[in-house]
Each structure stands twice: as structure tokens, then as C-alpha cells.
Amino acid sequence: MSTSKDRLFQFFKYAVYALLCFNIYVFWREEALAAQLQFPDGVGTAQIIASYAATIDTAAWVILLLMFELETYVLEDHHYSPTVTWSLQGVRLLCYGFIIYAFYGYVTKLFFIYEASHLVGVSSLCTLVADGWSYAIDLDEYTQLTAANCHTFSDAASYLRFEAMPAVVDATGLRDIRYLAWVDVINAAVWLLIVLVLEFDVWLQERNRFEGHALRASRAIKWILYPILLLAAVYWGIKGDFVDFWDAFLWIVAFVFIERNVFEWREESRESAGDRPLTAES
Q1: Does residue 79 fall inside a structural domain?
Q2: 200 and 93 in one domain?
Q3: What residues have CB less than 8 Å from 248, skipping those under 6 apart?
Q4: Going by DSSP bridges, is the β-strand pair 141-144/134-138 parallel, antiparallel, or unpaired?
Q5: What's the whole-model pTM score?
Q6: Does a structural domain hold residue 282?
Q7: Of 173, 203, 220, which residue constitutes the final position of a domain?
Q8: What is the pLDDT along the chain (282 residues), one digit of tens a residue?
Q9: Domain boundary among 145, 173, 201
């Protein structure tokens, strides 16, 4: 029975990992459509991170997640040859580079949104239909204005446009988009802190020192950070951004799995050591 439950759990875990892989495509599709509007002449090298921050971020995190899965669950001690160890470290460092790069992209996008300016002489969206303008429904989501839909988005008397983009939004919509951009930045920063703590957990566990004050400090920090991620997911859900809500939920579940791997790894290490009494050093 326990074997069947374990197999079911592993199937569920890897199904979550597979869904996160699929989210790379979902974010790419969403950001690619937005990039066509933001950069009609094509996305240059300098604009890649601003245009595809979520795609790059998600891809790097998926690879990093799989590295954690390898180290905390799949690989045994005898698998750690110098080549394997250095390969894992190299891939992880590369992932962290892209994750930090993506964080910079979220910050860049936040600054871009704050550059919105008032569109002078426009009091109705329908007057913009002939010029090919779009309306900002959400962060990275734009809908082209047509005679059929121009009256459905907003009845405001004034609008704002995004810098160098044929896209407009009313004041309320801009406020919501700015909030979403802030949530992106905060969420990315919190994940960086969590993975930093988790890296330290793994480092200590590899040396059989993940006990005492270190264990309590790790748990206390995570009790602060994970609720922030949960609040971000709830905010996305309330604002109707299902993709971001679903992605945030999957990531929280995925890292619960990693935390469970570390816990089981710690228990197995203690059992293999014969549950010897902890020393002051440990």
C-alpha cells in the first residue's frame, strides 16, 4: 500500500513539474503577442529581457527546480563524481544568472509602465479605431480597438498611452497594471530569497549540519516568505490573471515537494547514522 501511495505521489509531483514546463510556452505566447505591439520593428537584443522576462524567468526556474530534484531526491551519494558535481553547479549558476536577469526585466517593465503619459485631445476610444490603437486589458495583454468593441472597455473622459506604443488605458486600468507590475517584482525578489535559503539548507544537509539553530532559522524565514508568495497568487486570482495565479500556485506546490525531499533526505541521513546524539557542533 505504501509503495502504491509513493508511486501516486511521485506521479503527482512530476505532473506538476510537467505543467510548469508547459507554462514556459504559455508565457512565451502571451509575451510574444505583446512584443509585436511594443516593438513593431522587431525585438532587438537590448529589448529581449524587457519583452520576455516571464518566459526567461520561468524557463530558468524550471531548470533550477529539476537541479534541486536531482540533488535532493534522484541522485545518491555514490553518483556525485567530480564531473557530476561541477556540471550541476555550472547549470545552477547559469540558471541563477538568467533568474537575476529576468528580475532586472521585471524592474525594467515596471519603469516602462510608469512612463505612461496623457493622450491629449482624446475623450473616446472609438476615435482611435482608424489609427490601429489597442487597449491595455492587463499587464502584457492588449486588444486592438475596433468599431465593435471600442465602447466596451472604458467610459472615461481621458486616457493615457504607453511610451512609443499605440496602446492606451484609462487611469483605473493603469493603476491596476502598475500594481500587477509591482507584484511581479516583489514575487521575483521573494523567490530569490527563498532559493537562497534553500541552497543554504542543501549545503548544510550535505554536511549533516542541518539541525538546531540553522533548521529553526530556515523554517522561520520560510514562514514569512511563503505567505508573501501565497498573497501574490491570491492577488492575481482576484484580478482575474489566471495564468499568473495558476503558475504561482504550481510553483508553491513544486517547492513544497523540494522541501519534502530535503526533509526526507535529512531523516534518511539521521537513520543511516544510527540516530546518534547531536553534538554541539551539529
Answers
A1: yes
A2: yes
A3: 187, 229, 232, 233, 236
A4: antiparallel
A5: 0.80
A6: no
A7: 173
A8: 467 778 888 899 999 999 999 999 999 998 888 888 777 777 777 778 778 888 999 999 999 999 888 888 887 766 778 888 888 889 989 999 999 988 998 999 899 999 999 999 899 999 999 998 999 998 888 999 999 999 999 999 999 999 888 999 999 999 999 999 999 999 999 999 999 998 888 888 877 787 888 889 999 999 999 999 999 999 998 987 788 899 999 999 999 888 888 888 777 777 666 555 444 444
A9: 173
